[in-house]
Amino acid sequence: MKQFIYFALILFASWACTSPNNSQIEIEIDEPLQTELKDGRVLLIFSTDSTSEPRFGINDNVGTNQVFGMNFENYEASKAIVFDIESFGYPVESIGEMEDGTYYVQAFIQKHDTFERADGHTVKLPMDQGEGRQWTRAPKNIYSNPVKVDWKKGQKLSLTIENIIPEVTQPEDTKYIKHIQFKSEKLSEFWGRDMFLGANILLPEGYDENPNQYYPLMIFHGHFPSDFSGFRTIPPDPSLSEDDYSARFGIYGYEKIQQQEAYDFYQKWTSPDFQRFIIIEIQHANPYYDDSYAVNSANLGPYGDAITYELIPHIEEKFRGIGEGWSRFLYGGSTGGWEALAVQVFYPDEYNGCFAACPDPIDFRAYTSINLYEDQNAYYQEGEFRKTLRPGHRDYLGHISATVQDMNHKELAIGGNKSRSGDQFDIWQAVYSPVGTDGYPKPIWDKYSGEIDSEVASYWKENYDLRHIMERDWDTLGPKLEGKVNIYCGDMDNYYLNNAVYLTEEFLEQTQNPYYDGTVAYGDRAEHCWNGDPTLPNYISRLRYNTLYLEEIGERLKETAPAGFNQYNWTLTKN
Predict the structure, then answer these.
(1) pTM of this prediction?
(2) Tens digit of pLDDT for each residue in 332-368?
(3) How far apart are CA 35 and CA 45, in angstroms?
């Protein structure tokens, strides 16, 4: 029934056979949707699944949908966009190579804004619209209904774009959870337009009743949080079914488990003996990704300074944070794990400890499965008589589901060659690279062939290789990082991130004057986002970030907090 309702609105495309490699594809746009359209990228997406829209099925796995992408500029109203059949595709590279068959086809347009940056470059990029820079659901992007097509080589195809993604509904404040939007002067100057940072804030129990109490700040880094997650003031929904299956964890009833964990956290948060502190989740989506990686970047602008010197002091002033470096702690996993460590390294006096779980590559000698300083090609290991594709994603048994080439070719089809896909390798490149002559990030490697640019790799090393930076600068950094660096990773991380942790641990264990005096720990056969608890399965421990490191934080506060700090309930009283 679901399938019937969904496709009751599907139009059947007209088609006619011509010569085998002479497909003709036109994309019409409904008149009301033409007014705000100027530049962008049009995607042509094929699927064999009739139960969901093709745009939602593009991924790194073997079951991915097919996508072809083409940029356009200066759209002329009332004219159809003629799709270039030479456009690059993933996983099939050429439209001419598509197998004959029945497909559900959809056209999608991601709009590009024009930015006149302070560095003198003009670039065209998709602006975040409050959704976290997710092209499939970004407001103002437009798309066609899926069309059932009996595809044959030499196809003529006409699609009509008639839908627009609506604006995002913002969450409302509650007693405990607040939301702010903050204009950053630093970022606005860089981008040449008003740019905002946001935050979801969890206030401690007793906040309103104790106006003279000030609190430590726990800063959770990670992908764009639409609202504060993992906090629920009511018990799990009793009508919730337990037959939902989580393929990632291989269990049923995961939604109810998550609701129970969120409710348990609320009960702990409001209990009389629980420590009092503020938690914030930062929103820093930008034209390249769902977050900025929380550091200064030639391509993204001064996000590190904006967060550390503008946003966080603003939150502490508004919500009674203590407002000193000893009272701020960083934690997060994956992207957030890299950010937690990077922010601690780049701003060592402003934070009192980081807890970095399954961090993105922190040593570029193990940039997933690539050594950026010795390898010549990111996609292949090469010998005299053969070459082998590098793995990109595996399970805990080592079974490979995607290669580095697969993952990058997907991004190339979705976003083209200027880091505009909104995906993982493109954001690393956007954050870490110098600006190219065209104003876009200078590629670390050729996106199609995988050939590495050694000069760009050298730039990355000196500016963003966290292990190298710590080792290079330990004489001055070491005393400021002592006791603050804690790293956790599964030894079967899906993206091979544990390899960089091994190399970083080798350096940390050799440190002297001072010894780093932190923690590096590994989860046995644990996959991505293992965060340091060997007693619980990953599907539970990943839901307990907000309480997982409190014992270690408490020890840091005993060592570093001033005499007036209440070590029992973690508050500082000011008159």
Answers:
(1) 0.93
(2) 999 999 999 999 999 999 999 999 999 999 999 999 9
(3) 24
Q: What SS3 string covers 9-67?
A: CCCECCCCCCCCCCCEEEEEECHHHCCCCCEEEEEEEEECCCCCCHHHHCCCCCCCCEE
As a whole number of angstroms, the distance between CA 247 and CA 269 comes to 31
Tell me the C-alpha distance between 548 and 550, whole Å: 6
For residue 135 the two structure tokens come to 């092209």
Q: Buried b vs exposed e over 71-81: b needs ≥16 C-beta within 10 Å?
A: bbeebeeeeeb
Residue 111 has, within 13 A of its CA and on its CB side, a CA count of 21
d(C-alpha 409, C-alpha 211), whole Å: 55
DSSP for 265-332, written as a single string: HHHHHTSTTS---EEEEEE---SSSSS-TTSEETTTEEHHHIIIIIIHHHHHHHHTB--SGGGEEEEE
Which residues, 6+ apart, have CB-to-CB distance to 121 below 8 Å?
435, 438, 439
First to last CA, the chain: 65
Tokens representing 423? 């995906």
Q: Which of 12-16, 151-155, 219-223, 238-242 has the lowest mean pLDDT?
A: 12-16
Rg (CA), the chain: 25
Residue 459 is given by DSSP the state H
CA distance 486 to 475: 19
Query: Residue 480, Cβ neighbours under 10 Å: how many?
Result: 16
DSSP letters spanning 528-548: TT--S-TTS-HHHHTT-HHHH
What is the DSSP secondary structure assignment for residue 201, as one 8-state letter?
E
What are the Cα distances from residue 71, in Å, to 110, 262, 417, 420, 559? 9, 43, 10, 11, 56
Number of CB atoms found within 10 A of residue 575's CB: 3
